Amino acid sequence: EWTREKRLKTRSVNGTLGLGEMVSEILRSAGKLIILRGDLGAGKTTLVKGIAAALGAATEEDVVSPTFTLVHTFPGRKVTLYHLDVYRLETERELATLGIEEMVEDPNALVIVEWGEKFPSLMEAADAEVILTQGELENERLLHIRWRA
Ligand code: ADP
Ligand code: MG
């Protein structure tokens, strides 16, 4: 179902922040709902820091893991970034309480969901997915982004 893809590599936290900047425009053009996949420590939240900074929605320091808070909202001038982490959610019912459908109705929204692949409804609705995996070296990360043109 994806028609476009891109693979990128980084060897440091700063490199991942830079990748966030590189992919921010692709994500904006792809749509509003982005699934961010990868194991714990893969660099998902780090990537969102880079995206947020590039979009002018938040500083890198402001973006912290929403694992316990579930949703962080960053209203920027051009883009309102909704940063979610659904790792702790179990059911579609719990997911529904977050109001992702309402977020996506915001014309300036970019909604990025860490662990979104857990929920078929989110995979169905997603405009792009970003997959982060560990590379061969300790600080190396591979990024695979897929979207529909
Ligand atoms: P996630 O949200 O996927 O659990 P985080 O971004 O919160 O991951 O954390 C990534 C961890 O991996 C941090 O402790 C960071 O220091 C470390 N790390 C090492 N190399 C990288 C890299 N290239 N990119 C991102 N994080 C890295
Ligand atoms: Mg995270």
> Distance N terminus to C terminus?
11 Å
- What is the CATH homologous superfamily assignment? P-loop containing nucleotide triphosphate hydrolases
Helix content: 25-40%
| Percent strand | 25-35%
Which regions contain 5 or more consecutive residues with pLDDT less than 50? none
Number of strands: 7
Number of helices: 5
Structural class: alpha/beta
What is the structure about, briefly put?
The protein has five helices and seven strands; from the N terminus they run E-H-E-H-E-E-H-H-E-H-E-E. It has helices at 13-30, 44-55, 92-96, 100-105, 120-125, and strands spanning 4-10, 33-37, 71-75, 80-85, 109-114, 128-134, 141-147.
Describe this structure in words.
- Belongs to the TsaE family.
- Its main location: cytoplasm.
- This is tRNA threonylcarbamoyladenosine biosynthesis protein TsaE.
- With 149 residues, the chain is an alpha/beta fold.
- It has a single domain, classed as Rossmann fold (3-Layer(aba) Sandwich), CATH 3.40.50.300.
- The protein is 32% helix and 29% strand.
- The chain is built from five helices and seven strands.
- It has helices at 13-30, 44-55, 92-96, 100-105, 120-125; strands spanning 4-10, 33-37, 71-75, 80-85, 109-114, 128-134, 141-147.
- A seven-stranded mixed sheet has the order 1-7-6-2-5-4-3.
- A hairpin with a 6-residue loop joins strand 6 (128-134) and strand 7.
- The N and C termini lie close together (11 Å).
- The structure holds adenosine-5'-diphosphate (ADP) and magnesium ion.
- Adenosine-5'-diphosphate binds at residues 10, 12-13, 15-16, 38, 40-46, 65, 114, 139, 141.
